[in-house]
Specification:
The protein is of the alpha+beta class. The protein has a domain of 122 residues: Gcn5-related N-acetyltransferase (GNAT) (Aminopeptidase, 3-Layer(aba) Sandwich). 25% of the residues lie in helices and 32% in strands. It has an eight-stranded mixed beta sheet with strand order 1-2-3-4-5-6-8-7, sandwiched between helices. A hairpin with a 5-residue loop joins strand 3 and strand 4. Helix 1 packs across helix 3. The radius of gyration is 16 Å and the shape is globular.
Length: 194
């Protein structure tokens, strides 16, 4: 259990979503090291404190990115992370998602629940106030594709040689979700979108 009671931005039945902090480094990096087999070859989050410190500092600044932790409410343990990177304001109001579950929580639906909380926060005027979120996913990463598809993202195409991952330029599928339209008078058509 963490040494203090965390303050969550949002809570679901099983997880809480909170900002990533510098003090999370020891648990975060230990979880990364435990999860190498789960993450590779798709994802390479910081596995040492030396790597974590600049990562956390960049995401804690809030622009152009923001970092969040998905925590298991049963014990407070970090179950995964979700970053909103490359936030562009102005007419675009868009960010790019990065995320990963940790091995001890994988397959339990905790990251999916956390992503639902993040979407509500990202699109809220009191949260990140975004209009669009994008996820760029290597075509063979079936678990990641299932995660975003399950939250309503649509596949928009393929970007050849999009990101340099594990020593090579990799193709990525582009998945995106836009904020729901502003509420209008009358019944809500799809209250369970996320």
């Amino acid at each position: 259990m963490p040494p203090h009671t965390p303050t969550y931005l949002s809570q679901g039945p099983r997880v809480g979503l909170r900002p990533l902090r510098a003090a999370d480094g020891p648990e975060f990096t230990a979880r990364v090291r435990e999860s190498r087999a789960l993450h590779e070859p798709w994802l390479f989050p910081p596995a040492t404190i030396e790597e974590y410190e600049p990562y956390a500092a960049r995401l804690a600044q809030g622009a152009p990115g923001a970092g969040f932790l998905v925590c298991d409410l049963a014990d407070g343990a970090i179950a995964g992370f979700i970053n909103v990177n490359n936030i562009v304001r102005g007419a675009f109001q868009c960010g790019a998602l990065g995320y990963g579950a940790f091995a001890h929580a994988a397959g339990r639906g905790l990251l999916g629940e956390g992503l639902g909380l993040l979407l509500a926060y990202a699109f809220a005027g009191t949260g990140l106030a975004l209009h669009r979120l994008e996820a760029n996913i290597q075509p063979g990463n079936a678990a990641s594709i299932a995660l975003v598809r399950g939250r309503g993202f649509r596949r928009e195409g393929l970007s050849p040689d999009f990101l340099h991952v594990a020593g090579a330029w990799r193709d990525h599928e582009r998945w995106a979700l836009t904020a729901p339209p502003e509420p209008r008078a009358g019944p809500l058509r799809n209250p369970d979108r996320w």
